[in-house]
Amino acid sequence: MRGTRLARWAAAVPMAGLALATIYPLVFTANVAMKTRRDYVLDRFSPAGSLRWDNLAEAWAGAGMARYFVNSFVVVACAVALLLLFGSMAGFALARLRFRGSSMIFLGCLAGLFIPFQVIMVPLTRVMADTGLIDTYPGLILAYVAQFLPFTVFLMTSHYRTIPPEIVDAARIDGGTVYGVYRRIMLPLGAPALLSVGILDALFCWNDVLIALLMMPSPEHRTLMIGVNALRGQYSDDIPMFASGVLIAAVPVLMIYLFLQRQIADGVTAGSTKG
Fold this sequence. Notes:
This protein is mainly alpha-helical and about 280 residues long. About 75% of the residues lie in helices and about 0% in strands.
């Protein structure tokens, strides 16, 4: 019993320290957002004297965070929808259809996971500029799809490989077409993986800064993360206002992690045991 207690404490203490290290930045940001600029300069670490919502209201309305929020929501929703559509179709084809070159295509998707965006950002920007997609929503959506599609295809392929092939064979024997098998059988069976992968893709797109900064140079087309960075002035910083923007941008991500943590864990471990 003593050994069991020691083992539990040995695991609990580091995990508690990790939890505190994770929560403290959020608490500090929320505390700074409730201060005036003068209060922050005098003592940045002291608790806020009262709950002041002026900074949040000013950041949301006056600094244009509401418009940036809508921009991010539209772009992320469209990008995730295309990623799930193409990723599920490609995953089904690579996992259950027999055709020449499927192994090479899957290896190509795996290779895409190891290429940093910094390697391809210059040619991608040139291609987008030549096709007139710079500073447009379709351009940013396509850039997100190109960047995160290998990850989506890999996880969906791994999930579909765990489904018994006899299900697909039986459906084909009964006269089902490839599209019918995908739509009526594989798509419903892949719903848990689609949810997990969709959450991860949404988080990737929502938190992105570099791709959005390259694709959307105009202020009116900024995404939320770029808008938060724009709250910092060139010669002086209004840190409470900046903290308010960070808090607004973090709320959707915190909600996703709070209510969908099981699906996120399933998406991270998808295909780790079989595939």
